[in-house]
């Protein structure tokens, strides 16, 4: 199963939980949904950050063909080549089961 598919499932679950919390839930169901959302919400934020960085990398690669933008694009790509693997590792660590 691809990592992006897992990310999509996590995001979908967070959306589902937000929707459930917006509805009238009983006390225990509300607490359970709220707790689960609190656990996955930081992961969703990192996934969003990762996807934004990946999009920035694609945009920077497209700018490499423009002589006026080449230096800026190369600098951005250097930064993103460090940032993207760090985000991927942070997400993987966050997805590890708790002790």
Helices, strands, pairings?
Layout: H1 3-22, H2 27-63, H3 70-95
Helix pairs in contact: 1-2, 2-3
Please report the total strand number as a whole number.
0
Which oligomeric form is depicted? Answer: single chain
Which residue ranges are poorly predicted, with pLDDT under 50 across at least 5 consecutive positions? none
Largest sheet: none
The coarse overall form would be: elongated
Helix content: over 70%
Structural account:
With 99 residues, the protein is mainly α. Helix content is 84%, strand content 0%. It is built from 3 helices and no strands. The longest helix is centred in the middle third of the chain and has 37 residues, at 27-63. The chain starts with a helix and ends with a helix.
Structure at a glance:
This protein is an all-alpha fold. The chain contains three helices and no strands.
Keywords:
single chain; 3 helices; about 100 residues; mainly alpha; elongated
